[in-house]
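Changelog-linked ticket: adenosine-5'-triphosphate example.
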Amino acid sequence: MGEVSEVNGPIVTIRQPGVRNGDQVRIGELGLIGEVIHIRSDDALVQVYESTESLQPGEQVTGLGHPLRVELGPGMLGQIFDGVQRPLDKIMHMSGEHISRGLELSALDRDKSWHFVPHESLVVGTRFEGGEILGTVQETETIEHRILAPPDCRGEIIEHAPEGDYTIEEIVARVRGESGSIQNLKMYHHWPVRQPRPYRARAGASLPLITGQRILDTFFPMLKGGKAAVPGPFGAGKTIVQQQIARWANADIVLYVGCGERGNELVEILQTFPQLTDPRSGRSLMERTFLVANTSNMPVVAREASIYVGVTMAEYYRDQGYDVVMVADSTSRWAEALREVAGRLGQMPVEEGYPAYLASRLAAFYERAGNVDTLAGGNGSVSLIGAVSPPGGDFSEPVTSHTKEIIRTFWALSKPLADARHYPAVSWLESFTDYAERAAIWWADEVSPDWALRRQQALTLLTEADELERIVNLVGPEALSASQRWVLESSGLIKEAVLQQSALDAIDSYCSPQKQFRLLDLVLSYHLDGTELISLGVPVESLTELPYGGELRRLKSAVSNDDLQPLDDFASRVRESFDTMRTEYSVNQGNKS
Amino acid sequence: MSQLEYRRVDSIHGALMFMKNVAGIGLGDRVMIRDKDGRRRNGQVIRTSGDLVMVQVFEGTENLDLENTWVRFLDEPFEISLSPDMLGRIFNGIGEPRDDRPPIISSVRRNVNGAPVNPAARAYPREFIQTGISTIDGLNSLVRGQKLPVFSGSGLPHNRLAAQIVRQARLPGDSTNFVIVFAAMGVSYSDARFFEKEFESSGVLRNVVMFTNLANDPPMERLILPRTALTAAEYLAYDLDRHVLVVITDMTNYAEALREVATEKGDVPSRKGYPGYLYSDLAEIYERAGRLRDRHGSITMIPILSMPSDDITHPIPDLSGYITEGQIVLSRELHSKSVYPPVNVPPSLSRLMKDGIGKDDTREDHPRVASQLYASYTRALEARNLASIIGAEELSSRDRRYLEFADRFETDFVRQGEDQERNIIETLDLAWELLSLLPPSALSRVTDEDLHKYHSWEESD
Ligand SMILES: Nc1ncnc2c1ncn2[C@@H]1O[C@H](COP(=O)(O)OP(=O)(O)OP(=O)(O)O)[C@@H](O)[C@H]1O
Ligand SMILES: [Mg+2]
């Protein structure tokens, strides 16, 4: 038992001998939950996850004897948790529309029973290692939940439950440890969130994470198990990019972490996802999705926790052998929570008020991404995609610049593009990815051997066009040659027919890899054939006057993923009319010479 | 432990008052202060330990001395009384009457800080509000429960725009009026008067609750005023089932008061001296807008803020933009061209527009028309820019067409009368009239059916 000696916003000083750094404590009459973050000679500093309003010096403090941890077991999918893994639905039933303080709620439902099927390797008398699969329950129609033994337990199985319905508090297996002590295993276990969950080995990431967004998949691909950041000023489209990934990514499990952002954005997911069908399973998207929400009006400190709570749950599904995507919107709010606490602790700020350990914390977080061989003997991955919200849209600020050093895919959003309603406003000049070569192998096998070439041609064309535009803005379009004018036309086509993709378009919101490639291929062939015609003397105007440019721009919303035939038809029409022009002009040229 | 009174203050620093050796004081507790002349002031505990309590004084600490100041700790948070009688009344930042009428007496009292809304309890805002203003309805539609700020600058007509919205806002086909909560911080007497007269002349005064803190009123009171006003708004919306439109002006004055106290407290500054928690603090205010699943009423919020030096990257507009659901940005350039309302279209945005418009809400072509106008206008601005470099004569015929489009867009679509109310169909028809200046091949954001139905194109050259 200890007591409060000072209350300074979310930081509370307590006098409690013997408390350990990292321990959770329960504070005051209200029972606010906090975490010890600093120990001095005879007092300790606690960051409190709930508002400390009305807390008084002298109120009592109880140590809980464990660090911040999550419950891991069936029943997480489809749920929305707060920053310290309390289910927000249950909170609403307990305290109404506004979140009251000191609520004691466990993450997983204690009353629900699950149909447990013991795993074949679960044999009495055999050795058992931590992280192995005890059995399975069907968590949702699409996801089989593999019940894992806690990573830190090992020994000999001395008993296990037969197939049947159990609640998570019932014992499903008993293990005798090396020292002879008996451990009872249930369908859930705890894990401290600030400690990465163990795995057998890192396996290099190799498969692309397909999101159905052309600018991402085709131009700046990300891999399963990779780490990516989406920086951009307000309103540029970070949240939409992340929502699109949450909707369409070819992952098994999606975790959406709303960290210090808008309440309505989470509501939108809660209300639309159950209605949306997963293009691969044909079932409701909500069956593979869950959320962690600490919105901007909720206490700041829980924002810091929410990222770790999220990534630990993501790792847990990874350990079951799944490909998990966690999107975090926004990591800047998490960094600000760090800053807030550091400031109250009087730690020396180094840049824009951020503490010196900002970079290492960011790196340690992203390090939890990866494709791994699991303790259970399978393979799973966690892909991390963090939004970054730089003040004033300035990418040189600390959070963006440190993040940029850490991640491997950088989807930079641009304000001028967003202002022109060019969505997704991902800049082709500022974005980068280190995964393109790896992704190319998959694209070559699955879609087309020309993928890498086409991608490179398109990027070159876009860069060239940006250069030409600068010239036009200095001296006017007259300075350009015919083929340069055609480059400008074609880059406009790439932007409008390929890069622009409205999340709201019923047909184009998700674009299959095949369609992505075909669209790009069409536009580039159009460009190359046009270039050839121009070299034969065809005036640029007679090409731009053709109706094809307009049609190309509309194809993405007119042709569905299931039937790409119209793209072929279009291509052959263009070919025909280009052939006619070619013959005409080659004859002319022949005549002239 | 209730209502301890002390007569000794240990030190005073700016708006902060420090008291030593007062035990058992809760964070956020309300404090009553009497100075040597018997004048009452209000304060709030912002830091507390057994040895030292820090109190922020809303009326400022001028003329307080260390010896003759009575300080009473009320052992309760800041609360205000709420009743339907608030309508038609004027209060200060802490909810005391400013209109020489009696205070509100009611058994309903609520903590002005509220508790955070559970995101799981929210309903997604999706009902289109027609403001009669084309740049808003057509391009940046407002929906019930949205928070949509106006980013302005000194001397720009944000007040007139806000007043016009208040006058004209309604749901198409719905006659129930909004109840207005008007919160003014650090505004001039004439601006406050302007709004009062506006409410009066449009006959809504009886449906307005005003909370005002004028430019010469104590600045610290601005820290609590929006919270008081929103507590009233929540009461009207969720207890009395009303649809509430909250106009808050000027958030810049609020943020400046916050910076002042933060500096006095010695908080670590981030950008431009504003404390790192400015984002969270603003979010506590803005996130109180919205709709709840099981309630009839709603809170739609239009905060007004002036961008220091017209800089949208300044922390106040910047952090606001990161929290609100879009922004209407005003342009000095359009204003000087006498375009009213001078809405700067490209940087303006409504994030909740998508679910409030279209076939069942406005008209089926609306989302595409809005997107097309944005694209064409941006393209047209490029042409205008090019013309300023190489001269309009040098432009291609296509670019000259865009030039005309830019001009007409500003004079015919953006510009409208202060009393002119265009319904959404008029706005969309006007949009097509302008898009008809451009050839169909330049309009890739609309469908063939749209073109067929609404676009009138005659090849002119
Ligand atoms: N791919 C897209 N398709 C259609 N509209 C989009 C797309 N991306 C962004 N938008 C539009 O831009 C608006 C802002 O996007 P979003 O909310 O994702 O911005 P943000 O970068 O997350 O901003 P903030 O930092 O303030 O949260 C959306 O409401 C939507 O109207
Ligand atoms: Mg966002």
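Closing comment: Example verified and attached. The pocket of magnesium ion (ligand 2) is lined by residues A 238-239, 261, 329 (CB under 6 Å). The first strand of chain A starts at residue 2 and ends at 8.
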